[in-house]
Structures are given as C-alpha cells and as structure tokens.
Amino acid sequence: MPQSSQDNSKLFDEQVSRLHELHYLVLFWAAQGEGRGCKYNITNCFDDMKSAGVTRTKQTAVAAIEGLATLCFIDVREERNRKNIYITRYGAKALEALVMNNQFQPKPSAFLEEQ
Amino acid sequence: MTIGIGGAGSKIAAKLDSQAILVNVSETELNKVPGGARRILASVHATRGQFRGSRKNPQIGLDAYQSVRRELLELARGNMVFCSSGGGTGNGITTGLLQDLSQATDIDTANKTFFGIILPYAKLESNEFVNNTIEFLTGPLAEAIDSGNTGNIVLFSNKKKFEEKLSEDSYNQQLVESLKLFLSIPDKNDVYRLLDGHIDHEDFALFISKPYFNHFTFLEYDPAIPFGKQLEANSNPLLLEPEAAIEALFLLEVPRGGDPSMFYDILEYFSEKNVSPIYSVVENPDRQKPFVTVALLYSRKPAELVDDFNRITEQHVQAKVKKSLDQNVVLHKLDVNMEQEARRAVKQRGDTEDVLATLRRLGKL
Fold it and tell me: Which of B26, B45, B172, B353 has a CA between 20 and 30 Å from the CA of residue B251?
C-alpha cells in the first residue's frame, strides 16, 4: 500500500529526532568535504571523531556511519581501497533539520582543516 | 649474491643464500647469525669496542656506513639486499646505500639492486621501530624510487608474524621459502618442458631490475573461478597489499597432460587491467593441480605507504599519551576572553550556515 506524504514526513521527523551528535558530525563533515571537493573516508571520520573527543572507539564510529547509511542519509562507496562517505539528498534534508533545530554545535574536522 | 644488513636482514640473507654477505655494526650480533659466507663489521667510533649494536638509532648505522661505503656499493650492484627498516643498523646502513644509489648516474639495468625491506608491525612493535620506518620510507626510499636507480623493492610486513604468533625462525623460514619460489621461476623454465611463453634468466633479471614495488604470490589455479578473485584471495600474507599493477609476470605450472591453454584466462584478466604480463607455461609432473606464481609490479608514493603507518602509529601514540595524561592530571586555570569566545561562536554559526549553502550549491537541498 503506498504511504502518504504525511506518513513519510512523520517517519523523517522520527528518524531525525533519533540522531545523536555523532551522526550530526558525520553528516556535517561529509557535506563540508563534498563542498570542498575532497574525498572524506571512514578513517578520516574516525580520526576526526577522536580528535573532537566524541568517541574513542572505531566500533562506535563505524556504527554511526553504518546507521546513517542504513537510513539512506549517506552513501558509503568503496573507491581505491577507501570507503568514502557522500551525503544523500535525504541526508542533506536531515542535516538541514538538525541545523535549524540548533540541537548540536559543529566541531572542526582536523582532516578538512588540513586540506 | 645476497647481502644482509643488520640483525633481521642478515638472518634472512643467510637462510636464503649460503654465500650471503652479512653486515652489522656489532661483532656480537654478527657472530650470532648462523650461515653466510662472509661477515663485514662496519666500524663506528667507540671507546669500548664494538660489541654494542646501534641501539635502534639509525644515525649510528649511517655513521658506520661510511666505513663500508665503497665496498658495499660495489657488492650491491646487481645483487639482493635485505634489511629491516625498524632498527638502527639495517635502517642506517641501507639509508646510506640508498642515498648513494639515488645520486649515482652510471647504474645500468643489469646492475640494479633488488631490495627486500622488512617493516615492523606498528600495532605491537615499539615506537622507535615505527618512527624509524616512517623516516626511512619518506626519506631515502622515496629518493631512491624517484631516481629509478633501484630494482624491485619488496616490502615484507611483520604483521603475520605477530598476528599468528610465529617464532622469528619459522617466520623467516616462510619468508625465505616464499622468496625462493619466486626466484625459481627462470630455473623452472630451464628444467621443465615448456608449453607456452618463455621467461629466461635475462627476462627475469630485467623484470626484477625495474624500480617498482613487487608483490609476488602463489596459488593453486582453479580454471572454474575467475583469476582476479583467486588472486585477490591469495595475496601474499608476508607482503604489504599491492596497489593496481603496472607490470606483471606469471608462471603457470600444469600437471602432466594438463591443459596449457588455461593461461589465456589469466592473460585476459591482465588485459582488462591494461597490463601485458610476461609469462610462461611449463609442465611440472610433480604437481597435482595447476599452480601459478604471479608477481605484480606496482607504484605507490611513499607518502601513501606512510599514511597507513601513521594512522596506526598515531592511534598508538595517542593512546599512550592519553594514558599518561590520565595518570597525571594537572588542572590549569583558564582565562576566558569573552570577546574571543563571542567571535568563535559567530564563526561556528557561520560554519553551519555555510554547510547549508554548500548543500544547495551541490543541488542536494
């Protein structure tokens, strides 16, 4: 049975409300990276999370990335042995919603600042 | 002829070649290695005799290189050199050798040196080993690759040794057996009946004199499975993973009465990768199944090699620093400048607005 757009929008709000700071940062850095035309991969993301002090374990970083990929907020593409992260249109909407809610504060990505 | 520099390099060289020449800065270490035909003690200025090694300090190895410089440069021509990049002797002396080779202008193809370099396993080996390796990869090795004056460089990794908890001797044994299998390719062309292609000693020498990284591996070939998949599943665990191949060589050994035409599938695989390998097919009556020995030559910027190293090292060092900080916490009084804080907050707000503008520009919003 096709879902109504109201259902879709409810589901989207519900998905966004369940995102944590970690998810927000992945979306934020992936968008920034894409804007600057550089490949942002899982390892860069993990390094940034560590230097931002949001997690210390790779498992948590990978779980956040996989969660976002499952929700179709990001695409993770394997390119030249690196798993690069790209934000999807759906993910861009989610990031916009998070920014509008002013729920989390952005943190600088050490990797992107070096670029 | 094989030359082993430092403890690790000497052990491998002596296992590989009974005529090996072993080089060390410590007489004690030099005498500990069994086998080898000749031992060269590189001298350092020491008031207490030369019984101490280079204590993981490559500068000591580099200083000692001066005493054997001319001899080693002569011996290395057209031969194989083994060393480790972690310690002081292998790293230091090989650094000197690579620097001289980089500046040489008279090295022809037949005189290029094949290098086997053993890299430490950053996760479990000491920081000095890892830091020495990083300096080695970015400095002399990078310079030597750029000069094109070396032959193949094989990067062995200690990863398997540590992960499988192998004794040094059995790890070295595996490494040497693997190398011997690769180096026996032209001999097999001499000994066994040739069915297609041909790799003679000159072809092989030309191949190993090219200034690229070499990843060689072996597999029992099953014609029912695509070659690419088999190659991927059977990369040599003793070596660093290869990048895309630039050149390749393979030897297919088929059992008696086996179908030699299966090598076309391997050629097709390489042709898809735009690589034209040199190859040979021989009939080896001792084999029950087809067996392939493959060598891939690939190029990798030392910076990329170091990237992988750095990542592991930094995590490792950060964990150590964090641990020592946790144990010794000093609280500083923070002087917060409100004006600066306000500026930072504005900049941060700007960041979030920027990112939305970026997404709009990319057509995602």
Answer: B172
For residue B355, the surrounding DSSP H or E stretch is helix B338-361
Task: Say if residues B262 and B254 touch (Cβ distance below 8 Å).
Answer: yes
Q: Measured between alpha carbons, how far is B24 from B362 in angstroms, rounded to an integer?
A: 59
CB within 8 Å: A89 and B365: yes
Same domain, residue pair B78 and B8: yes
CATH number for B263: 3.30.1330.20
Clarify whether residues B121 and B240 are in a common domain: no
Interface residues of chain B, partner chain A, Cβ below 8 Å: 241, 311, 314-315, 318, 348, 351-356, 358-359, 361-362, 364-365
Residue B272 counted as domain residue = yes
Residues B288, B205 share a domain: yes
Question: A89–B364: do the CB atoms touch at under 8 Å?
Answer: yes
CA angle B79, B80, B86 (to 5 degrees): 145
ipTM of the complex: 0.85
Q: Is the pTM of this model over 0.80?
A: no
**How many A×B Cβ pairs under 8 Å?**
49
Q: Is residue B223 part of a domain?
A: yes
Q: Per-residue pLDDT for chain B (365 aa), expressed as one digit of tens each?
A: 899 999 899 999 999 999 999 999 888 888 888 888 899 988 876 666 555 677 778 888 888 898 899 999 999 999 999 999 888 898 999 999 999 999 988 788 889 999 999 988 877 777 788 888 888 888 898 888 888 899 999 999 888 888 889 898 999 999 999 999 999 999 999 999 999 999 999 999 999 999 899 999 999 999 999 999 999 999 998 988 888 888 999 999 999 988 888 899 999 999 999 898 999 999 999 999 999 999 999 887 766 767 656 655 566 666 665 665 566 555 666 777 777 777 666 666 556 668 888 888 888 88
Q: Tokens in use for B48?
A: 């207490």
B162 and B27 within one domain: yes
Look at residues B112, B134, B168 and tell me which one is the last residue of a structural domain.
B168
d(CA B332, CA B127): 29
